[in-house]
Amino acid sequence: MGCETGMTSSADERPEEHLLGQYIPLHYHFNMLRDESRMRPFREAIELTVPLGGTVLELGGGTGVLSWFAAQQARKVYCVERNPALVRAARSFLEQNTHGDRVAVVQADAITYLPPEPVDVVICEMLHVGMIREKQLEILASFQERYRRTFGPRLPKFIPDTTLLAIQPIEQDFCFHGYHAPVPMFDPAGPHMADRCLADPHIYSTIDYRSELPLEFAVDTRLTMQRRGQFNAVSFLTNNFLAFLLNEQRAVQWMMNQLILPIAEPMEVLAGDSVAIQFAYRAGCSLESLQESLLVTPMPHAIPIQPHLAQRRAA
Ligand SMILES: C[S@@+](CC[C@H](N)C(=O)[O-])C[C@H]1O[C@@H](n2cnc3c(N)ncnc32)[C@H](O)[C@@H]1O
Q1: Which residues does 303 contact at the CB level (< 8 Å), separation at least 6?
Q2: For the chain: N or C, fewer Cβ within 10 A?
């Protein structure tokens, strides 16, 4: 989602969900509705994917906006939302918009809901950087299994189609008006990062929503620095491929804000230095538990072995 705050509604009693930000109050949806970097690709992907007269399921419908995009082409859209305040809001907004009557807003938990008929497309935007804090993967893994059991082996198309998760070592300025405060932060990824990145991104997961979905991530990798700098943070990058247009040889993408996590012991690095990065977390976990698991260790400088010595050793 475009939401990176911990803001929650007081309507729900479940503290873990408040903590994780899965309950997003109506006034925060405004930020998602006006976030063009999110809305434009979702609208395009939905227009390209939903067949005329088709059926669509949206899990986590919020204000109903993505279901409404789908309703411009679909015969029927099932829009599942758990938060009663959002259910009321979505029903009222849909009444005010053309073809809103094609959307049935269902108040239910997406972890157990199945539509009454097979669908052509499933839309699910319970996305958060690194797949933390929201239940996108848990809900879609459960959906795949229950859908196959009820409707057979053929799964619908998913929006997003694929998500790539990556990390990148960076040099981050944590100085605010002269005050040094290395706090986790969210920042748009983009060209302004070029002189802060110390190495290319390392992809640690490729999530294909029509395949088995990962619910745990465990990364233990070595990265080689490509430039000199102060390595003081790891950036978590999340790029969602909402739809692929094979005939146009392009994808509709939503690159989310990167999550920048400061590391416990910043280090000076030179190009060619190696650093070990380890972390492990469960999809949907808190930002804090990802941060607690993050371990960065400088590796001793690699001593290049001469090829003829290597051959002699092998012999
Ligand atoms: C990031 S918002 C996206 C809302 C809307 N789809 C949009 O794109 O503007 C995720 C929505 O999923 C809902 N949600 C979270 N967990 C849910 C669950 N288990 N079942 C149904 N809805 C859920 C939240 O209340 C929220 O409205």
Answers
A1: none
A2: C
Residue 307 scores a pLDDT above 80: no
Cis bond upstream, residue 41 (ω within 30): no
Say if residue 192 is exposed, middle or buried (CB neighbours under 10 Å; 0-12, 13-18, 19+): exposed
Quote the pLDDT of residue 251: 97
Residue range of the domain that includes 192: 163-298
What lines the ligand 1 site, CB under 6 Å? Answer: 1, 3, 22, 24, 32, 60-63, 65-66, 80-83, 86, 109-111, 125-126, 135
Give yes or no: residues 115 and 167 share one domain.
no
| Under 8 Å between Cβ of 299 and 274 | yes
Give the integer Cα–Cα distance in Å for 199 and 193: 11
pLDDT at 37: 96
Whole-structure pTM value: 0.90
Q: Say if residue 85 is in the same domain as residue 199.
A: no
Give the residue, by CA position, lying nearest to ligand 1 atom 11: 60
With a cut of 90, say whether residue 17 has pLDDT above it.
Answer: no
Q: Is residue 308 part of a domain?
A: no
Query: What is the tens place of the pLDDT at every residue in 74-107?
Result: 999 999 999 999 999 999 999 999 999 999 999 9
Å from CA of 81 to ligand 1 middle:
6
Alpha-carbon distance of 114 to 118, in angstroms, equals 9
CA of 98 to the centre of ligand 1 (A): 22
The reply to whether 208 and 115 lie within a common domain is no
Q: Answer left, alpha or beta for residue 56, where phi above 0 means left and psi between -120 and 50 means alpha.
A: beta
pLDDT-based confidence at residue 287 (cuts at 50, 70, 90): very high
Task: Judge if 105 and 220 occupy the same domain.
Answer: no
Instruction: Report the pLDDT value the prediction gives residue 92, as an integer from 0 to 100.
Output: 98
